[in-house]
Automatic annotation (TrEMBL):
UniProt domain EAL: residue ranges: 24-280
Source organism, top-level taxon: Bacteria
Identification of the protein by name: Response regulator receiver modulated diguanylate cyclase/phosphodiesterase with PAS/PAC sensor(S)
Length: 280
């Protein structure tokens, strides 16, 4: 009987595995088609100065405008794009759209020519040799000044191989772009490495922002992160701000910038333009 159960378990496992593989292959085929069809678009979420609520920049967030499924969120396609290597092409398209859109806005709204655009770089993109020349050529082609592009790389990715990461970050820094550690607090960082990385900014993960209201200890954790970042001369962005209380707390802790639904959800390009128009 025991043998039987084992065998069944094995069958179930194989069936699940097979379904998983079939699903990845199906999504991969669909992703390729979508990439060729230009179905991926950058949406833009405002990032504001916490001191006065003024606009500081935007983060570009990928959306899949799928012909049958409608607007698909990154949670559903980034992991498979990463697994299949298609993230390299996808990331390039988003980077290109982000830089050219920001440069357009600078020209159209000269009062906003200080705004910068943050773009997410995945693990596979980060280790790909083509990333550095690609960023360089996109900046050249779109005309965006390098210091108005910020690349967000997660803490987990930069901590995987700190020697190699330091080299790559220095090469990127050499292009004149800004660098940000994303999802800070969800992985393991050591102060000595943070100090060696040529970072400009640290983004506190939204899970910390959410937990702040639960206890004073959680507030103290956020205070410690902000103070540590400032002592390493990093600017601090808090992501996922949804309430005024969270905003007020973060401001009182001297957090520099904020991003979250309290201000705005990520917006399609046309709505982001309306936002700029309404403010100017
Ligand atoms: P992330 O870079 O940490 O981006 C922040 C996520 O938090 C976004 O989710 C954003 O919509 C969400 N968010 C912002 N404010 C709030 C809030 O107040 N409340 C809540 N609940 N959520 C908020 P999104 O757009 O679903 O993206 C998820 C993740 O997918 C991103 O996390 C990033 O890691 C990845 N991603 C998105 N676009 C790209 C891309 O173009 N390239 C790469 N490599 N990854 C991307
Ligand atoms: Mg990000
Ligand atoms: Mg983040
Ligand atoms: Mg995050």
């Amino acid at each position: 009987k025991a043998k039987n159960t084992g065998k069944n378990r094995c069958l179930i496992y194989n069936k699940k595995m097979r379904e998983g593989i079939i699903n990845v292959v199906a999504v991969e085929t669909d992703l390729k088609r979508g990439l060729n069809n230009g179905e991926f678009e950058a949406h833009f979420q405002p990032i504001v100065n916490l001191s006065d609520g003024s606009l500081y920049g935007f983060e570009a967030l990928a959306r899949w405008n799928h012909p049958e499924r409608g607007m698909v969120s990154p949670g559903e396609f980034i992991p498979i794009a990463e697994e299949t290597g298609l993230i390299v092409e996808l990331g390039e398209q988003i980077l290109d759209q982000s830089c050219s859109t920001m440069n357009e806005w600078h020209k159209q709204y000269p009062e906003y020519d200080h705004l910068n655009i943050a773009v997410n770089i995945s693990a596979k993109q980060f280790v790909e040799a083509s990333l550095i020349p690609k960023v360089e050529s996109i900046l050249k082609e779109t005309g965006l000044p390098p210091n108005q592009l910020k690349l967000e790389i997660t803490e987990t990715v930069v901590m995987t191989d700190v020697v190699e990461s330091t080299n790559r970050l220095n090469l990127l820094k050499g292009l004149g772009v800004l660098l940000s550690i994303d999802d800070f607090g969800t992985g393991y960082s050591s102060m000595s490495y943070l100090q060696k990385f040529p970072m400009d900014q640290l983004k506190i993960d939204l899970s910390f922002v959410r937990r702040m209201e639960e206890s004073t200890e959680n507030i103290e954790i956020v205070r410690a992160i902000i103070n540590m970042a400032h002592s390493l001369r990093l600017r601090v962005v808090a992501e996922g701000i949804e309430t005024e209380r969270q905003r007020d707390l973060l401001y009182s802790l001297q957090c520099d910038y904020g991003q979250g639904y309290l201000y705005s959800k990520p917006l399609p390009k046309e709505s982001a333009v309306e936002l700029l128009q309404s403010m100017s």
